[in-house]
Amino acid sequence: MHGISSDLHSEFERYFFPSKNLIGKRKCHTHGIVTPADKENAQRLGREQLTQVILSLLGAWGDPLLQLYRSMSQDQNQDFNHYSSNKVLEIGDMVHELRDGVAKMAEKMKLSGVLGNTVGYISPEGLVPSSSFSFYKQGELNSIDHHDLLYCFRRDSNKIKNYLQILKCTTLPGLDC
Fold it and tell me: 157, exposed or middle or buried, with CB in 10 Å at 0-12, 13-18, 19+?
């Protein structure tokens, strides 16, 4: 999932901003989800907290990815956006499957006593302030919005990948970690 999002972000930059260096701080809609600052802090979190962070990040991407898909499939740049909107749809399916898989894994871990009962399924609306979602729900995304969403998703998918690796290694220490 992270690999596809990185490729899509890079292709988007090459297509729409070939000579521009887009440096700047972006405020992602997931900024309200508290995540560990680095690997060491992530490793210090308990399994419950790390699982909750993973579920929160995954849950926060359902609506924005759907908006991005709809916007890209209606955009004028058909050469790029036909391919890209299909990739966004594929990523959205992956996010949904991964979120469901992590939720099922958490339930099994609860039953076996590995996780406490504090981890639960989170609805996307309960994750971030509604004002953070507002520009996605308007459906009026431009190329800069597309770029920012792809940037934020690439960042969040990398966090998810790393957190899942840490969770795997702390839960199943016998694996090659």
Answer: buried
CA triple 5-108-55, angle to 5 deg: 30
Q: Mean pLDDT across the chain, nearest whole number?
A: 78
**Rounded distance between C-alpha atoms, residue 133 and residue 147, angstroms:** 16
Closest alpha carbon to 65 in 98, 16, 113: 98
Token output for 149 = 């969403």
Confidence of residue 20 (pLDDT cuts 50, 70, 90): low
**What SS3 class is residue 105?**
helix
Question: pLDDT of 88-103, one tens digit each?
Answer: 888 999 999 999 999 8
How far is CA 13 from each of CA 4, 20, 40, 104, 151, rounded to the nearest angstrom? 14, 9, 31, 36, 10
